[in-house]
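User:
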Amino acid sequence: MDSTLRKDYRLIAFDLDDTLAPSKSPLPDQMAAALRRLLDLVDVCVISGGQFGQFSSQLLDNLGASVEQLGRLHLMPTCGTRYMRHIDGKWVEIYARDLTAQERRRVMDVLESQARRLGLWREDTWGPILEDRGSQITFSALGQDAPLEEKRAWDPDGRKKEALRAAGAALLPELEVRSGGSTSVDVTRKGIDKAYGIGELSSQTGIAVSDMLFVGDRLDEGGNDYPVLRLGIDAHPVGGWQDTARFVEEYAAAHTPGEADRPGEAEPQSS
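Assistant: Predicted structure:
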């Protein structure tokens, strides 16, 4: 048995895209059921480079969680530069650490000019190419709402994205410019990544990193989940949301008295 299945964690943190759901797609029903069951047992955090609107449409709208379950859910948009908790029936921003308006404008100008120079700027996109997320500026080559198949086909070897990242980094040395999703480049203050977010989560909750587990699909070197490993956090790599659902079902079964041999969902609570 995987050792992470046996350990009693106080909090389990997840990446969002391709870990809990297909990229920019709603939470599948099986994953929603597994997460509800997990929320009955342990605190859960979801951390991603996306903004809160993405969390709402991709995660919360199909989660079907009760008020009690939502009270154990921690949301960390834009890699933890924002921290949200469900309090008194609504999502409340505990903190937000934004770039200044001047910094955000400069980043957007640099990304657009370098994308045009490299031949990566398109007029026929699925939604905006540049998105101001407050604490993060995101360049999405095909637009925020591009179909998954188009995203996968755009830059299979990562060279286009790396060219833009390197060009942006050279002109924005005071900021962090890094690869995001399959077609995106993110810009934040230096030191802002998922390790930063998990460190902030530990500070906010008082839960030691040693009592947390991180689950993600890009824990490989160079992946956007990889930075959490420098914290010494336990980690469980997955190859997609189906892997995550199986793992969560097995973990919940292993930690529910009398149900170790019956993975599945506890009786749903009304919300």
